[in-house]
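Async update (no meeting this week)

Hi team, since we skipped the sync, here's where things stand on the single-chain job. The sequence we agreed to prioritize is pasted below, unchanged from the tracker. I ran it this morning and attached the output directly underneath so nobody has to dig for it. Comments welcome in thread, and please keep replies under the output.
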Amino acid sequence: MNRNRMIATLQATSESDMPWVFIPSYKRPHFSDNMRWLYALSREALDRVFIVVREDEYDEYVECNPKFQIIQIPDGLVTGVGSTRQFIMNYAIKHRLDCIMDMDHDIKYLQYLYGGRTKSGNKCSKHSLVRDWEEHPEIPQLVLQLAGKISRECFKKHKDVLLGSLRKQHFSQSPEYSLIKYQINKGPTPRQTKILNMRSIYKAGISMPEAFNLHGDDIGFAAEVLQNGYSCFNIPCLCYDYVDDQIDSVVRDPHNPEKNRWLHKLEYDGLQQMEIKHYLRETFKFPDGQYKFGDIDWTKYHKLHHSEPIVERW
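Output:
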């Protein structure tokens, strides 16, 4: 899709297309300093955004973020990131919210992709830049609106799809990405900007496995969705960038990675109890070969299930 057509597609959306956005945060009351795009949202868009914090931090978050709606988790109800994600799902179910985005609190930019060419003349996908924001501060809101519109279209057409996400800005240069509206059971594991089909998740009885309460909640929930016979999707034409988690992580210690091994082992051990063990790609490892980070290997998944990915183009 060329740039003009993408802009027209974005502008054809409205605030009511936005997913309900939940941003869980812990020990980062000034998180919105990294998410400056939040301040450019319209009042109607902000009505669809919720910051989720623990009760003992509620007052500090309110003081630092007076413009935003803040939901407090009752003391003792959650003990980790996994149970916090489950609290958000339970809240959405209780309030009958159909399509939600569970967004990490370190998302710096929300951008769109469009077709272009490299300096050498090869086709590629380009993403909107910070200077585009300066001229058009509404871009992040439009990206969220289009994300919600695409997601609901996907959920309506494909009843088995429960979970998705946008694409990371990094490695988003393939010319294919700007041409694809969404793809099912193909591409990156849903992370950081997860989009959930809450009506279907409720009907299916899908919940966060307890094994991933402290770590690995993203891939752990995707594994739970897949092994119950449901599907994942992503939106390649919309992307995000984030603060490096090696610098800004609450759980992991960037100064002593050896201390993090037990967290990675928790994730790995949990995944080995699930079907995903047959199609888990161990993307990054410690120098001695121990598990550090994993993704879904869709080629192995489709071979196991005798299935094919679905790609919906513009």
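Quick observations from my side:
The chain has a mean pLDDT of 94.
The first strand starts at residue 20 and ends at 24.
Reply here if anything looks off.
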